[in-house]
Amino acid sequence: MGVSKQRIDYIDQFRGFIGIMMILGHSSYYLNSVWKQLDPFDPIFPTWGQFAVRYAGYICAPGFLMMAGAMVFLSFHRQVSGGLRPIKSKWYFLQRGLFLILIQMTWVNSAWGGFSALNPWHFGIISTIGMSVILLIPLVQTRWYMRAGIALLILLIHPLLLTIPYNPESILHTVLMETFITAGDFNKYPVLPWFALALLGSVMAHFWFTQWDTFIKKILWGFSIAAIAILLAIGVRIINGYGTILPFSDFGSISFFVDQKYPPSLFHNLLFFGFVVTGVTCFVILNKYLPRFAGIFSIPGKVPLFFYCIHLAILGIFVKRLNFYYLEGGIWLTFIGFFVLLAIMLPLAGWFFRVKLRSNNYFIRMI
After folding, report:
1. Which residues on adjacent β-strands are paired with residue 32?
2. Which of 249, 251, 200, 252 is nearest to 228 (CA)?
3. According to the model, what pLDDT value does residue 4 have?
């Protein structure tokens, strides 16, 4: 599939898949009573079932960051090859990044609580994606190996940056550290390690959209790179030293897989880089052999920001604000909520994509 095609089907499908996994994770967060005991910064899951429900959503943040990087690369080079001046394209991505930060601090932060209060002073995952888009602007024209080198350097030095001492009583220190390096109540998604994944997404885009021009190349190279990343991650985890944060009991145990996500360890980012590349490669296969099934995932994948914002608002209003089974169930209630929300969101996402195709409204085009 060449870069001339307006949409990349398997990318839309993978984005839709991680959007659906995100709904599962958020349904658990709003409905599952296990979160009365779990600390999201250091979760200890009581059963394999609870672990599986939560872990399914772990691919969402790295997946969205890598897809953001991939789409910045693709969109920029399409626009420039179509005659748009590079500065004009970069101006668009600057607006896009700032728009994402604005959406986080207005809609998203308030949606978590069902719009019971305005909460602009939180820098979350959508803001981090926005910042990563902005940081990609000066690098989007560089060679793929330069972007890969910068990303790997960031991932390697990030564990060292976590040792920087700072005063948690200082608002300035806390905001700076949590915005870029560590995690806390102001921001669980520090920009630097997640930006590294966006950079790696732009690197993979070079191969997905230009270099690997056949189905076989996408499959063989995709699975090979994913396997190398996963094996490297396992090696880092087994050593249980530099690049890991939480200890584990045994190889293959729940604790082995649950190294820290807030902020992400080197093990976490290597492992989920491998999982994301595996997921995209699987959708290359599904799109070829089961296109109708794979096409279902395209519905949310074509409007991922809309899908994120609206499902969160529905959960916030009907679960948290109205106290509708808020933290009163278990895995069974999580899946009931998941399927109900999916039945609502898939038609809404399909409708909004059709609206977006017809609209020239700046705000609608940005969502």
Report:
1. 329
2. 200
3. 38
C-alpha span between 248 and 252 (Å, rounded): 9
Residue 20 tokens, joined: 């659906």
Task: Check: CB of residue 194 under 8 Å from CB of residue 132.
Answer: yes
Tokens of 195: 């930006």
Q: What is the dihedral of CA 174, 176, 180, 181, to 10 degrees?
A: -50
**Is the whole-model pTM more than 0.85?**
yes
* Peptide bond before residue 190 is cis, with ω within 30 degrees of 0: no
Task: Answer positive or negative: Cα dihedral of 307, 310, 313, 315.
Answer: negative
Tell me the two tokens of residue 84: 């748009």
Identity (one letter) of the amino acid at 307? F
Identity of the residue numbered 329: G
Residue type (1 letter), 331: I
Provide the pLDDT for residue 2. 35
> Could you give the CA distance from residue 34 to residue 45 in angstroms, rounded to a whole number?
8
- Cβ-based neighbours of 242, under 8 Å, separated by 6 or more: 159, 236, 266
At 228-251, the pLDDT tens digits run 999 999 999 999 999 998 999 899
Collect all residues with Cβ–Cβ distance below 8 Å to 245 and sequence separation of at least 6: 259, 260, 265
